[in-house]
Design goal:
Strand content: 15-25%
Strand order of the largest sheet: 10-7-6-15-14-13-12-11
CATH architecture of the largest domain: Alpha-Beta Barrel
Low-confidence stretches: 1-18
Domain Beta-hexosaminidase bacterial type N-terminal: 43-104
GO molecular function, one term: beta-N-acetylhexosaminidase activity
Helix content: 25-40%
Protein name: beta-N-acetylhexosaminidase
CATH topology of the largest domain: TIM Barrel
Structural class: alpha/beta
CATH class of the largest domain: Alpha Beta
Largest sheet: 8 strands, parallel
Signal peptide: 1-20
Bound molecules: zinc ion
Number of helices: 19
Number of domains: 2
Number of strands: 15
EC number: 3.2.1.52
Mean pLDDT: 93
Length: 479
Amino acid sequence: MNILNIFLLSTTLACLTADAVNIMPTPSRIESGSGGLAVEGAHDIVYEEATEPLGREGYELEVKMQGITIRAENDAGKYYARVTLRQLVDQSENGTIPCVKIIDKPKYAWRSFMIDSGRQYQKVETIKGLLDRMAMLKMNVFHWHLTENDGWRIEIKKYPKLGEVGGFVADGPEQQGFYTQEEIREIVAYAAERQITIVPEIDVPGHSEAALKAYPELTCSGESPKPVKKGFSPYLYCGGRETTVDFLCDVLDEVCALFPSEYIHIGGDEAPKSEWKKCTHCQARIRELGLKDEHELQIELTNRLARHLASKGRKAICWGDVVTLPGQELEKNIVVHWWNYRKGKDKALKEGIRRGLPVIANSNYYTYLNFPQKHKWRQYNKSRTFDFRTCYEKNPSDIQNPTDKQREVLLGMGCCLWTDHGLTEEWLDRRLYPRIFAMAEQMWSTAERLPYAEFKAGVYAKRPLLEAMGVHGDWDEEY
Ligand SMILES: [Zn+2]
């Protein structure tokens, strides 16, 4: 899909109305005109200055019988105007697109999609395909979960064993591997061309068994952890040794050199402390610093990494676990990633507000798209399924009328595709479509929310186009 090269030839054609316009996510405003424009030949688009404040990513797209005008304040706005134009072209009938004026800007500056490349490696081409479709949905942050349990997928030159040991762990032969630094640079550039920032994640201190296997001296006991069969294990980076901090700072240095993103994700979720409780190094550190418990030791480690990132002009994102237990203050460059709605409801959001830290809304119910839509699948029982409608109507992260305090901290919204229980490449699209359209709508659209039936009809109308692109979702009519 090459959005950047759209050339149109104008001719006078039969009258069409904006009824034929089905743009997802729904634009702020659509004003229908009369007449249409033929999609053929090679007429350039005219770019003009914006006439009303449209913000960094907003745009005005005007299709007239004489041609096309795009007004925006900068490249991001121009890009999103072309994404919208591409949709008009794709749904054109008899080679004609209707005359229309679309004025549009996003609800949130942060609109993320995460894939777990830790548990399962995906091919570079697969990652690029995901980025293409994120752009189509006007999502602008690719949260790349690169380390998870036994898997480590990013080449770190100083510690080659990370990729060698953690790269070749997954369910199927096609899911083995890690991304070389050269491949990562290529993917970062590919994303940037689509107005997408890649935010890499190195999970600390839990979900890190791959690194601990590659370098057992990073564990509390000095012994290699056992393989993780499901969920997570108590094996953490030792929180009491300086060598752990040195290692993590070295890794973050290489990560920062590869990813220009202002934000780097340092994990922080699901870190049970049984190993730390019996570790002499961890306990000595707790005493030395006068900390209350092992959770405070995790916050101490988090703050040290956040300060290291701050010294490089970066911000640190942490999963909500760092605020949902009582603990000391967090560094001011930390962003809270709210996820655990199932157990904690909106506690992470409330804590973000109380502490004055920015929050990304990404509640597991209902933005975790690895949960199947309706039918039980492997370890996902019935209580861990949710359909398209639930996603659209009941997502706690979709805060439609935020309070002033919520508005102050909410950076935006995210959705995730974890690859646990062997979610190999062949399953990805079935999990994403059509539900990811609901996510994109909630992240981007400032228009009045459509009733579900109408929204569904608009999304399902995109199915043939997606299938022509080789994207096969889970389109049960019962949803
Ligand atoms: Zn320890």
